[in-house]
Amino acid sequence: MTKKITAAVFDVDGMLLDTREFIFSAYEDTLLRAGHTVPNRETISKEIGKSLETCYLAFAPDGDIATLCLAHDKFQNTPEKIQLITAYPGVPEMLQKLKDAGLRLAVFSSRKLTLVSSLEHTGIADFFEVVVQGDEVTHHKPHPEGLFKALAGLETKPEHAAMIGDAPVDILAGKAAGVAKTIGITHGFGTEQELIAAQPDHLVATPEQITKILLT
Length: 216
Description:
- This protein is of the alpha/beta class.
- The protein folds into two domains: 7-18 and 86-215, Rossmann fold (3-Layer(aba) Sandwich); 20-82, Orthogonal Bundle (DNA polymerase, domain 1).
- Helix content is 44%, strand content 13%.
- It contains eleven helices and eight strands.
- Strands 5-4-1-6-7-8 form a six-stranded parallel sheet, with helices on both faces. A two-stranded antiparallel ribbon has the order 2-3.
- Strand 6, helix 9 (168-177) and strand 7 form a beta-alpha-beta unit.
- Helix 3 crosses helix 4 and helix 9 (168-177) runs parallel beside helix 10.
- The mean pLDDT is 96.
């Protein structure tokens, strides 16, 4: 018998929020100013979801990673850059239906600093009881540390929870934590082929489909 889902933990970038221009432009500006080769956006997409340090090690292995991360954060942490972020169509409605049904909700993101302000800017911050951001964990996705932290805050065991995201690292973190369901969505940074390879329990194209899976 399938155990009842009582909680859902969401990735943010590429799952709840369309942060593509916000994130791509930060990497491009930072690497260009530091004199590094700027990878194309498809290459950048493959690293999204990992820690900022891990991403810059991939893009500029010979660079000063700490300085690059500081420049990246400075670029993003301005009001005009926050304006680039929007909620994906259907996300607020999905969260409202899940909340109304009694599910406890949290987010688990590798981003820090601007995470809470982006949730507030898009009007969805109040849906979440717990927010776990990148500077609150030692081990980043696909390690499940942040997911375990979110579930502890929700007072929910993994077997009664779902992990939902747009990247393979989200699915792998959910599997490593032993959650009841992992759901991948195709409107974000991860490609459909990459998500399929991570073997989520469900693969969807819209937030509405997530609602149906979690409330059925």
